[in-house]
Amino acid sequence: MATPETIRARPARAIGTPLASGIAVLSTLLGLVVLAWVILFVTKGRFLKHSFETIVAGQTNRQVKVAGDFQLYFAPFNLKFVAEGMTITNPDWAGTGNFFEARRIDSQISTWSLITGNRRINWLGLEDGRLDLQWNKGNTRNTWTFSEEKGEPLELPVIARALIRGTMVRYVDPRMHIAAAIRVDPVEATDTRFASAVGFDGNGTVRGTRFVMNGTLLSPNATIQGGRNELKLHAEALRTTLDVSGTLPGFTELDGSDLQMDLRGRNIADAFSLLGVALPDTRTYRLKSAMTKAGDEWRFTNLRGTFGASDLAGKVTVKMLQPRLLLTADLATRTLDIVDAGPFIGYSPSASAAGAVVTSVGGAPRILPDAQLRAEALKNFDAKVDWTVRNVRADNLPMSNVRLGLELDDRLLKLSPLNFSLARGMVSSDIIIDSRRQPVVTDYDIRLSPTPMGVLLAGFGVEESGTSGTLKARVQLTGRGNSVHDSLANSNGRIAIILPKGSFWTRNVQLAELDIGTFVQKMFENKLKEPVQINCGLLGFTVRNGIAAADPILIDTEKSVMLGRGGFSFKNETLDLAFRADGKKFSLFAGQSPVGIGGFFAQPKIDVISPELLSRAGVGLGLALVASPLAAVIAFVDVGDAKAADCGPVLAGASARAQRDDKGRPRDDIGKGTTATSEDGKRSRGERKEQRKKFLGIF
Fold this sequence. Notes:
Blueprint: H1 4-9, H2 17-43, H3 49-60, E1 64-66, E2 70-74, E3 79-89, E4 98-109, H4 111-116, E5 120-134, E6 158-165, E7 167-173, E8 178-187, E9 194-206, E10 209-220, E11 229-237, E12 240-248, E13 258-265, H5 268-273, E14 285-294, E15 297-307, E16 310-319, E17 325-337, H6 338-341, H7 349-353, E18 359-361, E19 364-366, E20 381-393, E21 399-409, E22 412-422, E23 425-434, E24 441-452, H8 453-456, E25 470-480, H9 484-489, E26 492-499, E27 502-504, H10 516-524, E28 532-544, E29 547-557, E30 560-569, E31 575-583, E32 595-599, E33 604-607, H11 611-626, H12 629-632, H13 647-651, H14 685-695
Parallel strand pairs: 5-6, 5-7, 17-20
Antiparallel strand pairs: 1-3, 2-3, 3-4, 4-5, 7-8, 8-9, 9-10, 10-11, 11-12, 12-13, 13-14, 14-15, 15-16, 16-17, 18-19, 20-21, 21-22, 22-23, 23-24, 24-25, 25-26, 26-28, 27-28, 28-29, 29-30, 30-31, 31-32, 32-33
């Protein structure tokens, strides 16, 4: 049995042996690290040159060589890397030459970034470098993605500070149609806040258009706390000038940048065409905005500027996605000049500015826009745009409060809503343009809410104070074609303009355009001493293959019923309409003959002395010769047998077949949706053929 003395004599076991073992191992490892650090620091790691070439060549599947000095060590914590005459070859598909070469590269790499994979370079000195950045034709591989997998987008390492001399960068992207060469050289830094200043300039082509650029990038002095790189960039291409200035967090770090953009030129469509984005043409413009990058988005905020005689403000984001970039925008305009709105429906802004919206085709005037939709460009991007316009500057067009919602998804373009206030009424539109199909298919649905005619037609001789009548309308058409003109020229559908009960009064004013006031006076009375009292009215047209036929035209007033026949053509923009007012009561003297509207959309004409009236005048003259002067009056007697209309079908916008008189009987005095309908509702087959030839532009 052990005595207390024996126990004291035994050697004591070391306390915490596992902990001590761990400390010993850690100390050994730390010692080895320190030893390695010392060896690397003393030797500058030059003995690792061959190992470096072998390892990097194996990882990149490229030939890697360092012809001159080589250093790789910790100084004291950042990894110091120096190589002279270093080359990395291109992959075989990129042709001969090197992906990278430099007479000398001197860098300090963040050790922590090597662990986390952030690739941060605290300092880079590069002399006489060459960098060849290429995508292959299929856009599946590039020279900077060293694995055999699909090429990744270009992401430069974060470089905090740099001094680059005599370096050239080449970039080729067949899919984006970009080829550029940029030269980088130091320039004098006059500001003591900056340690170095790098100048760059270059040129190239974007989608076949040549561009030039130049600028400077100033790296901050390391002794200044919180210094940021300052960028100035100037670029010109396709009548467009871009200036960018501001600061970057790092020499190549764009995320979180604080930049200001100034973009100006003759046509904003030029600038966006370089991105492959199709926008309507504009007149001379200038836009300024704050600009930054966040991940895969370029954000343009506090946007403000002008285009033509209109203003623009808001924000725009361009998201670089595959296979199509995404353009989103929230825009607002205080005043939009109607000339600047022309390109949105196909008018040339230069022609519109000169007042030449009417063109001549085959000697005939044409007003429908025939600018072709750039369907191919719609493949390159998607878009979501909201645009509001407070006021529209336009003569005789009381238009305001425009709201446009635009969505483009893989070539399917939706303009919904496309709404605006018009003379205290509201036009609501939904237009779908499907360019996935060729020719392009467009669906039009345009609605006008009840609108005071006195305001709407004030510029056409209508007296607002004596007009209480309103009108509402709807256009529903589907057409095929790559322009507004072609689409409507092949369209099918219906147009209906409805006049509810109200009064209508005109002034005797002659205008260069079609004078609605004069037309009404000729239709109802020689001189209007009081407003026309309208019970109900419908100007309905059925459209087949671009030809609109009256279906029906029927306006019921207190004293008369006005009927119309004929139609118009979207193909050659001709008008051939005849209107006749029949009295509800006996009248001794009444022309009772059609008043015609002919000519073209751009140049309509009123035909007051119609062939029918001349014929009746001849009959009257014959009666006067063979009988007596009083007999001549018989030719102009209106017996007052006009059939009053049932206003129900009229106000519902129903077709001619559904119309009834006030006794509920089907009407037999209105057209049945064909331009070949005469006064009695019938025409010979030959007459119908001749009428169709006229609308098709054969004559």
